[in-house]
Amino acid sequence: MDFFGYPVCKEEYAQRLREMIAEKTAFVVSTTYCSYCNKAKSLLDRNKIEHSEILLDTLNANDQMEISNCIYGRNPRYVPIVFLKGEQIGGYGELMQMQSDGSLQSKFGPSADIV
Q: Which residue ranges does the record assign to the Glutaredoxin domain (predicted)?
């Protein structure tokens, strides 16, 4: 994945993120207190899209910084960040738009029903 090619991203963290993202169909970067993170995960659940997550605020300070460096580089930092089939699609708004326009269903087939 070229996404983790930021100069501030250490390779060991990039590799672990690649592995985590590849484990499930969807991967969500979130925090325990983010309502839009919960909405994104609920939307994935309703559409029967298997997902995993990393909760940034539960990590030690160093890991949180290094993982954030890989995900965001020097760009603005926000959650959730959603990956579908290894591709970063954006946040909750982009995920909701995909559901609304049918592209979520076309990407995942009939198992991703609009609820």
A: 28-88
